[in-house]
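name: query_chain
kind: protein
chains: 1
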Amino acid sequence: MIIDQTIVDRIGRNLVVKGAELDEYIIDSMLKMGIMSAYIFDGYLPDPDESLITSPEAARQIERLTKSDRSKVKLSEDVKKRVAEGIQYIYSSGVDTQEISKAATNITDDLMNAIFSNNAVAIDISVLKTSDEYTFKHSVDVATIAMITAKSAGLAKEQIYEIGLAGLLHDVGKTKVPDSILNKPGRLEDDEFEIMKKHSLFGYRMIENNPDLSSAVKLAVLQHHEKIDGSGYPMAVKGDQISSYAKILSISDIYDALVTDRPYKSAFSQRDAIEMIMSMTGELDIKIMETFLESMILYPVGSIVELSNGEKAKVVSNTPKYILRPTVVGLQSGIAYDLANDMSYANIIIL
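structure:
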């Protein structure tokens, strides 16, 4: 059977692409995600969406202006499988802390290889998904985002590696939080939130005597919810009292939490999440925020987007300092919209 619709998750990421041939693995995966039915190609081809037909002028502009994205992190299916199994082991109850550090080291090795094998300097968050379970996916995403941010900031390989370890372990203390609080499908009561806020302290205590982890890794796990204005937890430290590793983890953690569905909230769009991050100048380190934003790719080259003027357009290049405003070409008009630099298009945004 050929599927006749693209299956997406709640934040618009493609799970099964239209035209894919269904097999037992795909069908089983869809069922596990609660997708009980899908449209199948029946041999009849409807008229194409007129808005997606590319005019000759647009085709010429796209060919002339397309500039490949910066090298991005790529995880092979084998690596994703190993990483998913490793992170589930780390977050299993009753695992010895020595074994936790060994598993984290193995995963970080894989992530380092993925980053440095093609000298990756950017990340497309939509391709990182390694598991349907939030904690596992979130820990790997945070580690990968933090490592790319650290690499873009010019940190040494050893520091990038340690940030990866800290990212994988930053939420390990949640294994000590009752499931009734961790998975509550609604707003936490004040006393419940106080318990939840202790997870970074729980995590630190789980690894504080582990000789295989540096003090910098342990401190990052402890401080990843601290804010530079002192509004964070568990110790409400501020400014230079917060380690540089923790400052990188904080931004990575907030972003990935915003774009992920949770029992108590729906995911924000990537665009909205980025705008929320950009508004947190009083809470997050500005220089690290800038590096983080420059490391992210929201609209990969080749993506089809809808503009606020009603036109569909194809992304032909990205400008690192303006990740919300790539250069796009209108599929019908052939107009090249340099959203980052041409002020005549300042009122046009990507919807």
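note: The longest helix spans residues 97-117.
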